[in-house]
Specification:
The chain has helices at residues 31-42, 72-82, 85-88, 99-114, 126-143, 173-181, 231-242, 263-279, 283-293, 313-329; strands spanning 12-13, 21-25, 48-53, 66-68, 91-97, 148-153, 155-158, 165-168, 185-190, 204-206, 217-218, 226-227, 248-249. It is α/β, with parallel strands linked by helices.
């Protein structure tokens, strides 16, 4: 439960693995390898990034902790395993590689289950709602306290009238919103064409938004262009210059939202409060809370905690808080 009494002022985290990033690039430019190298450089000791791989190109990349996913149910299975603290503690973050393939997979899943051809054709606005529901898988991972990073393809696009050329993704607005919203850095990865051995060289990256690269994002003010291997060093320089030591912490900011209560513990607390209220003559008020929040059966009786699924833990928490308020109102809290 939230505890405002012991709330502390925020400190800026120097655990850079807690700041989600997006690496964009064309096929073969080294997005996956570059992102893996960067995320490993900032990962806390003993942890590694987990790459959810949606195509087979990753097999040629060394030192990659990767789990291949072929379908939405595969991804749901990964999320369910990450709910186990012993599994989750192995990883510093999760990477979806690539979001283009994730969107294709989600669209295919929606088309199969909703009996439509493409999400854009599912009625008026329904397609986006279906897609948003599937992409909600990413929010589940974030709610476990794991930062989520992404790779995505960019494509060259030339405007017929202005003749201006831009490089951007072809992703649906729903997908882009999920991918870019929490990102602190969105960069484009490029080969160093001046290198004598470009295929083996450290990749160049830029996070600076321009008229040509409109999807980029730089929250911190990094150099216009640098090698991927220098990102951590450049971030540290910026933080050392901008903040006092007292402003900083090495803890991940996202650790604050790690779920500490299980569905069973919340449900059992609700059952105890319900019994306490009934025993003291407040059954009608307690049942009304259940009816207005969980729902009612065909005969008008309220649905109970046993009708809730583990995924409805947030609803269970709301009901428990309202039962606690009612118990407190009648002086029953111990």
């Amino acid at each position: 439960m939230i505890d405002l009494l012991n709330l502390q002022e925020n400190k800026v985290s120097t655990d850079f693995s807690g700041y989600p990033v997006v690496f964009l690039g064309a096929t073969g430019d080294g997005k996956t390898d570059s992102l893996n190298r960067y995320l490993r450089s900032v990962a806390p000791e003993g942890k590694v990034p987990l790459f959810v791989e949606l195509e087979d190109r990753y097999k040629a990349i060394p030192n990659l902790m990767a789990q291949r996913a072929y379908s939405i149910p595969d991804i749901i299975s990964i999320v369910n395993q990450l709910k186990n603290p012993k599994v989750r503690e192995r990883f510093s973050c999760v990477v979806f590689d690539t979001m283009d393939k994730f969107e294709e997979m989600a669209n295919r899943y929606i088309a199969t289950n909703k009996e439509v051809e493409i999400t854009e054709d599912i009625g008026f606005g329904k397609g986006k709602r279906y897609l948003n529901a599937q992409i909600g898988i990413i929010t589940e991972i974030r709610n476990l306290g794991l930062p989520v990073n992404f790779t995505a393809q960019i494509y060259e696009k030339t405007d017929i009238i202005s003749k201006k050329t831009t490089y951007q993704t072809k992703l649906n607005d729903v997908t882009k919103a999920q991918m870019f919203h929490d990102a602190f850095l969105v960069g484009v990865v490029k080969l160093d064409n001046k290198s004598k051995t470009p295929l083996e060289s450290d990749r160049l990256i830029s996070f600076r938004k321009t008229e040509s690269y409109i999807d980029l994002k730089d929250t911190f003010g990094l150099p216009i262009e640098m090698y991927v291997s220098n990102i951590k060093t450049e971030l540290q320089k910026l933080f050392d210059k901008k903040y006092q030591a007292s402003d900083l912490t090495t803890n991940q900011a996202l650790e604050e939202i790690v779920e500490t209560e299980t569905f069973e513990s919340v449900k059992n607390k609700g059952l105890e409060l319900g019994s306490l209220l009934v025993e003291n003559g407040y059954m009608e008020e307690a049942m009304n809370i259940l009816k207005t929040n969980i729902g009612q059966n065909e005969d008008g009786s309220p649905k109970m905690f046993d009708s809730l699924l583990p995924t409805q833990i947030d609803l269970a928490k709301v009901v428990v808080m309202k039962l606690e308020d009612l118990s407190s109102k009648h002086g029953l809290n111990k």
